[in-house]
Amino acid sequence: MARTSKGTTSSNGNPQSTSQEIAVHHKEELQEAEGTREGSYFRPNVDIYETSKALTLVADVPGTAAEDFEIDLRDNLLTIVGSVREVDPSWQPLYSEYRVGHFMRQFRVGQQIDQTKISAEITDGVLKLTLPKAESAKPRKIEVRTA
Q1: Which of 120, 137, 18 shows the shortest CA–CA distance to 69?
Q2: Cα separation of 138 and 35, whole Å?
Q3: CATH code at position 100
Q4: Quick check: is 15 in a domain?
Q5: Does residue 24 sit in helix, strand or coil?
């Protein structure tokens, strides 16, 4: 586990050092992944945010390029599959913590999402999917009139 130091000042004005733990997240390998590619499948960490207009799904997929993804929406099931290209096979790592394999996640998409407008982009190993809400699912203000 890694530690980071954070400098503080004591009550007498002398500098102090405190340590905080940094959580280490390891890739979670899927044990029963159904895939058409050989190799290991991993479950990427995902965060989902909601606004009044859309859901935003953010997935950590380091080493995966835009052309290495297959994102499919069928029968309200959103499937994200990505593959990481192997590092130059002539390299002989002295130490390795990173395993090459495929990423896979699936999500049920409800009727509140406009499925025709889902978009995806990747930047620096982070995949961002935007799932816009259908007009009927967006909050609206109802005007109160006097009789």
Answers
A1: 120
A2: 36
A3: 2.60.40.790
A4: no
A5: coil
Going from the C-alpha of 31 to that of each of 43, 46, 60, 123, the distances in angstroms are 10, 18, 19, 28
Instruction: Name the one residue in this structure whose structure tokens are 């990173």.
Output: 98
CB 69 within 8 A of CB 55: no
Model confidence pLDDT, tens digit, residues 69-85: 999 999 999 999 998 87
**Does residue 89 lie within any of the structural domains?**
yes
117 by DSSP, 3-state: which? helix
Which residue has 């096979």 as its token pair? 89
| Amino acid letter, residue 14 | N
pLDDT band at 64 (very low <50, low <70, confident <90, very high): confident
| Residue 77 CB partners (closer than 8 Å, separation 6+) | 106, 107, 108, 109
Q: How many domains does the chain have?
A: 1
What is the domain extent for residue 46?
Answer: 28-137
Measure the CA–CA gap between 147 and 142, rounded to whole angstroms: 15
Helices (H), 37-136: none
Residues in the chain: 147
Whether 17 maps to a domain, the answer reads: no
Amino acid at 75: D
- The answer to whether residue 6 is domain-embedded is no
